[in-house]
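Render this sequence as a predicted structure.
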Amino acid sequence: MELVGVRNISINSIENSEITFEVDEGIILKVLSFTHNCAPSSDSYYVPWLKLNNEYLYYGKIHYNYGTDNSVEANVPFYLSEGTHELKINSYNNNTFTATLYALEFKLTTP
């Protein structure tokens, strides 16, 4: 593999809560980390979440009355193969949610 660049993919619930992005042929993305601007919440209408290809990267739900945390956060790093990928973020009641995936682009090479 040969490092060819850095790629940061951002999403904003006000502009577009659902985006698609491409990973070119012969390229893979190594997702190093991601951010979401909201901490976990106990409000059932305000649970912050972020999905990649319909799988939760982040789901921040807290149940204070039971003292448990149902938060989910994906393990990083992970790789994305070539093709089209979909990133979704929650949008509720005109709240602004933002998130960013931080990744490195690698060209697949043969030794």
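Summary. The domain at 2-107 is CATH 2.60.120.340 (Jelly Rolls). The longest strand covers residues 2-12.
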